[in-house]
Amino acid sequence: MSLKAQIDNDIKKAMLAKNKEELEALRSIKAMILLAETEKGSVAEISSETENKLLMKASKQRKESADIFQQQNRADLAQKELFQLDVISRYLPKQLSADELTDELKKIIAEVGAAGPQDVGKVMGVATKKLAGKADGKMISDIVKKLLTS
Predict the structure, then answer these.
(1) Which of 97, 103, 83, 86 shows the shortest CA–CA distance to 136?
(2) Distance in angstroms (rounded) separating the CA atoms of residues 27 and 114
(3) pLDDT, tens digit, 9 for 90 and up, residues 8-17
């Protein structure tokens, strides 16, 4: 089942359950998918890779918004963003833990033959493609820098 069909089913369930907050989050995901499908130069059906990129982008936006709202002492708005983040997270692939990510990055570093901090770019290029959707780019970058400088 495609992400779009899954979202449609979940929207119906949320409507029947009269769950307004979840419905709002699901509709925002569906709107992003529809926008991606109707973009100029795109094909009618978007790939699962593109769907994952959209979800990661939405997830990152919600995290950043929640952080800003918490800094401004707006717990009500931060809570709303965190709830939407939770709904979006259901559709993302399982995220790697820090230990799993470190192990994967060590393999990539050995594969690329990186020796020091000057090779961060080489490692990041391979790592971001290989681990797309499985880990946050900032987390990948932090661990790569730590591994290459030690």
Answers:
(1) 97
(2) 44
(3) 999 999 999 9
